[in-house]
Amino acid sequence: MSSKNMLNLSRTVVRTLTTSAPRRAAAKNEVEKGYFELKKVQEHFQKHDGKPVFLKGSFVDQLLYRLTVALSLAGIGGMAKLFYDLSVPKSQD
């Protein structure tokens, strides 16, 4: 085998191994099924409906958000009570 043929063969092998799968699929005019599913999910989350992205999921997302807000408010209230108890002296009755 000549050195020129060997060089072409090595280029072909390297190009085959380093070309990404989406690029190879595009070269074959094939689109993966997952691409369309991903596009549907992206459209759902990028829709302009006034909701923040972390609430656009399912009911579980809304439940977790409300639970987080409630626990945060309870923690802030507990801290306020602690600061009040520590700053106001108790009567000596």
UniProtKB/TrEMBL annotation:
Q: Where in the cell is it found?
A: Mitochondrion inner membrane
Keyword terms, alphabetized: Membrane, Mitochondrion, Mitochondrion inner membrane, Transit peptide
**Any one GO cellular component localisation term in the record:** respiratory chain complex IV
Q: Does the keyword tRNA processing apply?
A: no
Q: Source organism's superkingdom? A: Eukaryota
Q: Does the keyword field hold Cell membrane?
A: no
A biological process term (GO) from this entry: regulation of oxidative phosphorylation
InterPro entries tied to this protein: Cyt_c_oxidase_su7a_sf, Cytc_oxidase_su7a_met
- Record family assignment: Belongs to the cytochrome c oxidase VIIa family.
Query: What's the protein name?
Result: Cytochrome c oxidase subunit 7A, mitochondrial
Q: Per the UniProt entry, what species is this protein from, by scientific name?
A: Bactrocera dorsalis
Q: Which gene encodes it?
A: LOC105231067
